Amino acid sequence: MSDCIFCKIVSGESPCYKIYEDENCLAFLDVANDFYAHTLVIPKKHYKNILDIPNSELNYVIGVLQKISKHYVENCGFDGINTINANNKCANQSVFHLHFHIIPRRNNDGLHIFPEGQNNKFDLEEVSHKLKLN
């Protein structure tokens, strides 16, 4: 897509700080520069989000996500990682090209990244009946 910043990065029109690349995926540092080593993992082919990518291609991207995550923990001194993915505007997806965020973590780093909700006392049995796949 000509107006997609991630497609421009894949094509070489826009620069990036590349962490990993193969024929199907690209991983690079997020220019938001908000967390140390914040990395984005994308398929090179344009998909809007997780809702429209074929399973086989999604599985490949997840494999790359895992490879980079393991590298960060096993070789780069991190203790863990957060992975984040947003799908559609209501979920705060800001670039409409499928991407996963890796935010490397260290013990006691003080970051609070995972969204915190509150116990709304939903009737979980009722909710499960409405959502259940048959």
Short characterization:
The protein has helices at residues 5-11, 55-75, 124-131, and strands at residues 18-21, 25-29, 39-43, 80-84, 100-105. The chain has 134 residues and is α+β, with helices and mostly antiparallel strands.
The CATH topology turns out to be HIT family, subunit A
* Helix-strand sequence: HEEEHEEH
**Name given to the CATH homologous superfamily:** HIT-like
In CATH, the architecture is: 2-Layer Sandwich
Distance between the termini: 36 Å
Task: Look at the structure and give the CATH class.
Answer: Alpha Beta
The domain tally reads 1
Characterize the overall form.
globular
Q: Indicate the mean pLDDT.
A: 95
Counted by DSSP, the helix tally is 3
Q: Strand-residue fraction?
A: 15-25%
Q: Tell me roughly what share of residues is in helical segments.
A: 25-40%
Number of strands: 5
Overall SS class: alpha+beta
Poorly predicted regions: none
